[in-house]
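Bit of a strange request maybe. I'm writing a small parser for structure token strings and I need a real example to test against, not something I typed by hand. Could someone generate the tokens for this chain?
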Amino acid sequence: MASGDAAFGTHAGAGAHSTIQPPGRLSSMDRTQRWASTMQGFASGGVHRAHADADRSVPHLGDVAARPLHRVAREDLEDVELAPGATRSKGAGQRGNAEAPDPMRTCFERDRDRILHSTAFRRLSGKTQVFVFPEDHQRTRLTHALEVAQVAVSVARACRLNVALTEAIALGHDCGHGPGGHASEEALDPFLAGGFDHAPWGADVSLASLNLCAETADGIRNHSWSRPSPITPEGEVVSWADRIAYVCHDWEDAELAGIVTPSMLPDAVRARCGNRRSSQLGAFVNALIGTILDTGHVGMDAESADALSAFRACNYEHIYLRDASVAQAHAVIAVLRALVEHYADHPYAIPAVRDGGLIGGERAAIDAAVAYVAGMTDRYAFRQALALLHWDPDKLPRGIDG
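Reply from user aminoacidic:
Good idea to test on real output. This should exercise your parser:
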């Protein structure tokens, strides 16, 4: 028998390992060959299509319908479709470095796309939301950002605000977070004159290379409630969407982890929003939409706002400030501060400034070290602690096994 026969499913003989494929199942080689056969698509009438049996078409109703809907025409449609006070793309889009406009996309669609494809956004998949080194279905900063975007876009669409600007701010709002959750802010505070705040850090450092529009950067910089108000209603919507999303999904994660039970929810939350994340999100989103449409202000009626506040206070008591969370935060702080000190003394070990001529311990080296550590994922930061600092694995945040 030829040596390659087994790969194609022939019987290898008595007592030998058989690779016969069950009826109807493709071998890995057959599957690979089938995928390769679609490399150029399927030609029909001079057009290559994705599927051999594709017969869908988009009828053209004369010359006008056959033309692409360019950016300028779509900006004009915003004047008709968006509510008074909503942010228009036309006349906006001021960037730190001037750029020619895109022929198809509005300036805010361009920002959304840049954020979505950025390294800072991708790294959110490896950064803590509540639980360090999340497992199974627990949220990461990335899934949090996506859920914030879903909530914010739902509100913006219903209230006829600029959806692209809203989505761009929501996707980018947490790109300034360091590894290990909010503990990273306390960890990095001592190294910067004004302290470390993930909101302005995201706009002014993590995403600075994207040359975002002023409105987008402002919404990211000021999404936290402790910051000045964003300059656009879309930015204010994201501020609310952020709180709505994390209050609901952090509770769900903690409930699935066995940390809390529905009976621990405040009566005001259960009465107003129910016990399930879907009903809670729906209640808060509808309250936000209703208030905007009724009053013209981005906010929430008193009863719903009180329920959201009670929900958040409950999260702090039972999740964020429980003993295990506090211990986790202390472990994160110790590791990150040690890493910054190491890289500040050895700036040549930072890839981006390896040839920058920085002198260890000087202000520029410290700033570079903070930027490098803040950009790390949980896994990378704690592995660097083990490799470079010979950190005791037992002193790493729980869930990190080295």
